[in-house]
């Protein structure tokens, strides 16, 4: 099977593309204390109350916890570890007043649909831990590493993809011997999309820095705006959710071999070069995402030597629908899921033998095809035919984190994190993530984590 590093003609050009390597290590972590953090003041719900989740919130793809980790350098050798944890805890309790839904739990409300409910002794989870290692012993902490998993708390014997009756936010503060620390977060995707998570994180960080509650903008729940129509009106085929029996070698190849995470730093020069080479014939403007998603899709299919050539493959990616909504527009501060899944389709032959510009065009058309009506149709589609599982047949999914202000949002008073983002994607080997570069004076590079498999 072809491999990414065996394909310089497809993916690498001089120093414009750099493969990043992470060390294989064991991070010893000792859990010191686990406690519950509840809102610091009154909230507008009582025990037994529930909150509506839209079909965008509780679709099967959102029924996951998104794990992220943030590393912070030591401010000084004598920094008080307990003081750091205390500041984070108090700020979190303050932020949970306006963001009170995070203190609830999920339950099924009928017909397989989820809602947030509130009961006694709820709240979010705060875990305090320490490691005998120093941050310097972790190697390059600007590169996502599966070895960091002990820095993000999971319950013993926790079931995969469990979201029912479990804290909706879990925070682990791990102190290292050098005085630095990490913040490992797990946030339930049902409560917020990436932009919503950044809004919450920014409020928590600003509150920690100021010592008083700061929310800008004020959070808005307002999930009822995405209620399905009556009767539902599904106006599109929604191939993004369609179950397809994969008649190609793609899915079999990936799931029969052990997935390995690969990581590349893609320079701004390479991104510009791809756009220059690939201007579609219609001269219609296209985005850097269009170009890079198309390039990665083609390179991935070539590397995996997918057969047969006439088989149709799918590329899916989320599009922020906030700017599309006019009737009515979303209120400022809305932090729920407002994403729509776009789906580009192309045959194996078109991907491996066609021109890059043609692939860019189908990606661009899929992105621009997301409209307010498409979003409403998605909501209605889920209402009448709720997907019960994720479908991977003939599919690559690209997740774009480059649009998130994750580094800027995560300054709790100890400066920007050295790294902010995911840890490992090997459980989902058909997902590719585009990450922002973490340097303060970034050159516009992005970090690409493509799915990869070795025999």
CATH superfamily of the largest domain: Chloramphenicol acetyltransferase-like domain
The CATH architecture category of the largest domain equals: 2-Layer Sandwich
Order of helix and strand elements from N to C terminus: HEEEEHEEEEEHHEEHHEEHHHEHEEEE
| Structure class | alpha+beta
Return the average pLDDT rounded to an integer.
89
Percent helix range: 10-25%
Q: Compute the gyration radius: what is it?
A: 22 Å
What is the straight-line distance between the termini? 8 Å
In the sheet with the most strands, the strands line up as 1-11-17-16-14-12-13
> How many domains, as an integer?
2
Report the CATH C-level class of the largest domain.
Alpha Beta
CATH topology name of the largest domain, in short, is Chloramphenicol Acetyltransferase
Largest sheet properties: 7 strands, mixed
Low-confidence parts: 1-12
Number of strands: 18
- Note the beta-strand portion: 15-25%
